[in-house]
Amino acid sequence: MKLQTLFTILLASTLTTACSSEQLYAAGRNAQRSECIKRPEAQERDRCLKDAGLSHDAYKREVEDISK
Q1: Which domain covers residue 40, as residue numbers?
Q2: pLDDT at 14 over 60
Q3: Cβ distance 62 to 49 under 8 Å?
Q4: 6 belongs to a structural domain
Q5: Could you tell me the pTM of the whole model?
Q6: Does a structural domain hold residue 27?
């Protein structure tokens, strides 16, 4: 019974961490968008907003590609 409880706690912890990671990423992107909007040059602002629009999954793929 103790092993099952430990497994359940580890599984819940892992799932919570994954969710939190995406939430933190989204919060960071929202902050970046706010900073992008403040940029005076339209071209620079558009490039910044494009970068800020990168999804969490796309970000993870880019990180994995760089790590290889």
Answers
A1: 22-67
A2: yes
A3: no
A4: no
A5: 0.61
A6: yes
